[in-house]
Design a protein that fits this description.
Helix content: 40-55%
Strand content: 5-15%
Largest sheet: 8 strands, mixed
Number of strands: 8
Distance between the termini: 70 Å
Radius of gyration: 21 Å
Strand order of the largest sheet: 3-2-1-4-5-6-7-8
Number of domains: 2
CATH topology of the largest domain: Rossmann fold
Oligomer: single chain
Order of helices and strands: EHEHEHEHEHEHEHEHHHHHHH
Shape: globular
Length: 309
């Protein structure tokens, strides 16, 4: 009997949709699911593609990729008689492509292990554009042997894979990546606003950065392709850095690490959130940079509680 090649993709949104499309291009047997009907519509009637819930995937697939917002959605899919773990077929492997708290990832992996299902956390870098070119980078934590026998299922959309250690290490690296990424972006925004005050065009600053030692993803991609061209379309919500940097800062502080630069970045993102921008495009952090900076964060009032008698 030939090896099972069917892949399941749970979550067909901004990232999951392009991943599923890559499997179609590779003529891989595919199962797709999303709670939003409009996300699965592009896959209806496609050859070799089945629209089916996670429990059905668990019975048929060699690998299930979860491309959902957080650990909470995965936990819901795993539990119960109609969950993935109760219906898992022989050899099933789960890949968690979320950006999540490594502690929560470890809990899910332990739950899966009790059901005999290997669970690998795989932080993504490269965005939808990287996926569409088949050049996504994955940061993976979990059993190296399981990765070794299943990495062939990742080739339609992945170019580089880094195995970083035990469960949770992939998601830990993803948080580090995002913490630094967004801090550099805001530093670049700050420099651009100062450039304007000094009579220098932002476009010229970015051109110089890209030919000198201050180059970064922000200068090489974000500013030229999403800001300076006037598109204001980074294809990412401000919600994402707000969540990720906040989580990284909380973990850093709990571990006694100095995360001062990230904390300042998170403070700025909290101001954007307080301004009602969580669902706005990420590029607008530069457009509204000065106005966001003027926001005074509201102090959270803690409710008083009576002492027990």
């Amino acid at each position: 009997m030939p090896a099972n090649k069917t892949v399941g993709v749970v979550g067909a949104g901004r990232m999951g949709g392009p991943i599923a499309q890559r499997f179609i291009r590779a003529k891989t047997p595919l199962m797709v699911w999303d709670t939003e009907a409009e996300c699965v519509e592009p896959f209806e009637g496609k050859r070799n593609v089945e629209i089916a819930p996670p429990d059905a995937m668990a019975r048929k697939c060699a690998v299930i990729l979860f491309v959902v917002p957080s650990s909470a959605e995965i936990a819901d899919c795993l539990k119960g008689k109609n969950g993935v773990l109760r219906n898992a077929g022989k050899g099933l492997v789960i890949y968690d492509l979320t950006t999540s708290n490594p502690a929560e990832t470890k809990k899910l992996a332990r739950r899966a292990a009790k059901a005999g299902v290997p669970y690998l956390d795989a932080g993504m870098s490269g965005g939808p554009g990287g996926i569409q070119k088949g050049k996504l980078t994955l940061m993976i934590g979990g059993d190296a042997r399981v990765l070794g026998r299943t990495r062939k299922h990742l080739t339609p959309f992945v170019d580089r894979i880094f195995h970083l250690g035990g469960t949770g290490s992939g998601h830990a690296m993803k948080l580090l990546n995002n913490m630094v990424l967004h801090t550099i972006f805001l530093a670049t925004c700050e420099g651009a606003r100062l450039a304007e005050r000094m009579g220098i065009r932002v476009a010229d600053m970015i051109e110089v950065f890209n030919a000198s030692s201050a180059f970064s993803y922000a200068s090489q991609h974000r500013f030229p392709n999403n800001i300076l061209n006037g598109s204001w379309d980074a294809r990412a919500r401000i919600y994402n850095p707000h969540k990720d940097v906040g989580l990284a800062v909380a973990i850093g502080e709990a571990l006694g690490a100095d995360v001062g630069y990230a904390a300042r970045t998170y403070e700025f993102l909290k101001k954007a959130a307080q301004r009602g921008m969580l669902e706005e495009d990420y590029s607008l952090l530069f457009r509204d940079f000065d106005e966001i900076g003027k926001v005074r964060l509201k102090k959270i009032k803690l409710a008083r509680t009576r002492k027990s008698a």
